[in-house]
C-alpha cells in the first residue's frame, strides 16, 4: 500500500532528459541525450517518468512497430529506490499504453535483475543476446568489402522492406532516424539489398546495429567495413545468440563478449524475428 501511495507515473518530457542521463550513467549505459530525444520523437505519449514521493525515480520508454510489435526499453530506477514497486509501476504504464494501440506482441531485452519482474508480467524467453565490445581494429581494406557501399537515402525503402521481413515488424521510422544520426552501409544483390549495418555514436562506444544479412558472406564484409570506418574507437554491439553464426563472426573480427541479456516476449509473437537474418539488434532500448 505504501508503494501505491508513493509512486506516480507521468509522461516523460524533454526537460526530464538530464534525469534520464543521470540514471543511465549510474547504470553504466551508453546513450547520449540525442537518444532520449529520439525516444520522445518516436513515441511522445509512450515515454514515462516515475516519481517516488514527488521526486524523479525512474524511466521507461516504448516504441510501437505497427500493430505487430511493441517494444519496452530504458527501464531504469535509481539504485537506492529499487524494490519499492517503481519498476512494476512503470511496466504497468508501458503495457497499458501498448495494449491501447492493439499490438499483438510486446518485447524487451532483460537483464538478470529485471527478469523476475518481467516473468511475473507474463514475458517468456525468445532468445539470448550478448553485448560485444572492443577497440575497433579495422584493416586497411579487404577485397571482401568490395560490394559494401554507404547506405544512401535512396536505398532506405528497399532496406526497410527487407528489415520488416527480418525483424517481423515495420521499424522504418526508426531506421530512417538512425540513418540520419550516424553512418550505415549496404550490400546489394542483383536486385535488392542482401545486408546492411548501421552505426551511431554513444557515450562510451560507437554502437553498431542493426546488423542484418542473408548469409555470413553478406554479414561479415559489412562488419569489417564498419570497423574500418571507426578504427581506433571503441565499439559495442548486441549480438543475436539465436543466430548460431553471429557470435563467431563478431569474435573473428576482434570483438569480445561482455555480458548477456535475454530477449523476452509477451503475447502471440505471430511474426517472430528471422534469427537467421539478424546478426545484431538495433539496441536493447529499441529492438
Properties at a glance:
287 residues; alpha+beta; Aminopeptidase; 2 domains; 13 strands; 31% helix; globular
Describe the structure.
The chain is an alpha+beta fold. The protein folds into 2 domains: 102 residues, Aminopeptidase, CATH 3.40.630.30; 151 residues, Aminopeptidase (3-Layer(aba) Sandwich). 31% of the residues lie in helices and 33% in strands. It has 9 helices and 13 strands. Strands 1, 2, 3, 4, 5, 6, 7, 8, 9, 10, 11, 12 and 13 form a 13-stranded mixed β-sheet that branches. Strand 9 and strand 10 form a beta hairpin. It is globular and about 60 Å long. The model has no long low-confidence stretch (mean pLDDT 95).
How do you describe this structure in short?
The chain is an alpha+beta fold. About 30% of the residues lie in helices and about 35% in strands. It is globular and about 60 Å long.
Count of distinct structural domains: 2
Proportion in β-strands: 25-35%
Uncertain ranges: none
Instruction: Give the SSE order as H and E letters.
Output: HEHHEEEHEHEEHHEEEHEHEE
User: What's the CATH class of the largest domain, please?
Assistant: Alpha Beta
Q: Average pLDDT, to the nearest integer?
A: 95
Gyration radius (Cα, Å) is: 19 Å
CATH topology title of the largest domain: Aminopeptidase
CATH architecture of the largest domain: 3-Layer(aba) Sandwich
Proportion in helices = 25-40%
Number of strands: 13
Amino acid at each position: 500500500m505504501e508503494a501505491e501511495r508513493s509512486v506516480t507515473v507521468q509522461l516523460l518530457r524533454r526537460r526530464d532528459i538530464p534525469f534520464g542521463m543521470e540514471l543511465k550513467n549510474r547504470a553504466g549505459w551508453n546513450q547520449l541525450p540525442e537518444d532520449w530525444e529520439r525516444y520522445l520523437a518516436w513515441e511522445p505519449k509512450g515515454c514515462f517518468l516515475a516519481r517516488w514521493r514527488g521526486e524523479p525515480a525512474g524511466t521507461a520508454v516504448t516504441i510501437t512497430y505497427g500493430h505487430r510489435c511493441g517494444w519496452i526499453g530504458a527501464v531504469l530506477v535509481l539504485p537506492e529506490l529499487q524494490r519499492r514497486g517503481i519498476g512494476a509501476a512503470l511496466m504497468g504504464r508501458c503495457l497499458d499504453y501498448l495494449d491501447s494501440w492493439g499490438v499483438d506482441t510486446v518485447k524487451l531485452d532483460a537483464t538478470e535483475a529485471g527478469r523476475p519482474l518481467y516473468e511475473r508480467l507474463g514475458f517468456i524467453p525468445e532468445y539470448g543476446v550478448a553485448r560485444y565490445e572492443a577497440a575497433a581494429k579495422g584493416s586497411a581494406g579487404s577485397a571482401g568489402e568490395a560490394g559494401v557501399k554507404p547506405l544512401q537515402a535512396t536505398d532506405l525503402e528497399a532496406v526497410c522492406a527487407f528489415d520488416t521481413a527480418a525483424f517481423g515488424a515495420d521499424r522504418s521510422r526508426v531506421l530512417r532516424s538512425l540513418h540520419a544520426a550516424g553512418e550505415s552501409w549496404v550490400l546489394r544483390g542483383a536486385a535488392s539489398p542482401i545486408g546492411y549495418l548501421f552505426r551511431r555514436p554513444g557515450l562510451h562506444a560507437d554502437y553498431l546495429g542493426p546488423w542484418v544479412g542473408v548469409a555470413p558472406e553478406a554479414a561479415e564484409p559489412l562488419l569489417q567495413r564498419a570497423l574500418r570506418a571507426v578504427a581506433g574507437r571503441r565499439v559495442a554491439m548486441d549480438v543475436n545468440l539465436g543466430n548460431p553464426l553471429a557470435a563467431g563472426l563478431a569474435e573473428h573480427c576482434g570483438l569480445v563478449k561482455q555480458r548477456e541479456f535475454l530477449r523476452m516476449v509477451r503475447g502471440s509473437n505471430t511474426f517472430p524475428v528471422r534469427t537467421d537474418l539478424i546478426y545484431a539488434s538495433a539496441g536493447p532500448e529499441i529492438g
